[in-house]
Design brief:
This protein has 193 residues and is α/β, with parallel strands linked by helices. The chain has 8 helices and 5 strands; from the N terminus they run H-H-H-H-E-E-H-E-H-E-E-H-H.
Length: 193
């Protein structure tokens, strides 16, 4: 709406770029990030995202009928098929249980450093302690390598986040956060007590 009044208003263009990335409109989102960064080289979020884009271009994409998985080439060789199998099982199990299956591929990005995860997710470094985030049909997650010395379970994280995909999408994002979170925690524990 802001851009309908002033198509060159940079704060709105920057926010739209992030929103598009979070909604899975990556091509348009990355294009807008580049435009904002070029127009204002001092925009910290655009700068961070533009630098991250260069790193993400080195990632591989593993596709399946319901998922588009982006991850580091070396990590994909080690556990990429296992991630795909887990996501396929989550899609079948939770989809059948709740009666919702994706109509387009869900984007899953597993980032190799915590700061890259935070920049992709929030636009800025930070967010320590957060393992994954779901924006509807986009999931971002830390890889096991992103948190050295910490005990985490990437499988539980992805199952949890995929459950958010189901609850958010089937309700058109009209679900209280506490309820979506509660269902995800419950389903995470049901999958592997």
């Amino acid at each position: 709406l802001a851009l309908s009044y002033d198509k060159d208003y940079l704060p709105a263009r920057a926010q739209l770029a992030q929103d598009l990335l979070r909604l899975g409109e990556a091509e348009e989102g990355w294009k807008l990030v580049a435009e904002v960064q070029e127009a204002d080289p001092y925009d910290v979020v655009a700068y961070n995202l533009a630098n991250l884009r260069d790193k993400l271009e080195q990632y591989v994409t593993l596709k399946s009928p319901h998922f588009e998985l982006h991850m580091d080439r070396r990590e994909a060789a080690v556990y990429g098929p296992r991630v795909q199998a887990l996501l396929a099982r989550a899609e079948r199990t939770l989809g059948d249980k709740y009666g919702w299956h994706p109509t387009k591929p869900v984007t899953v990005e597993i980032l190799t450093t915590q700061s890259d995860f935070a920049i992709r997710t929030f636009g800025l470094p930070g967010g320590d302690g957060i393992l994954g985030v779901c924006f509807g049909t986009v999931i971002t997650a830390n890889s096991p390598a992103a948190l050295p010395g910490r005990t985490t379970n990437w499988e539980a994280t992805l199952w949890h986040e995929y459950c958010h995909v189901v609850t958010l999408e089937m309700t058109k994002h009209r679900i209280p956060r506490w309820l979506s979170e509660g269902i995800s925690v419950y389903e995470e524990r049901q999958a592997k007590p």
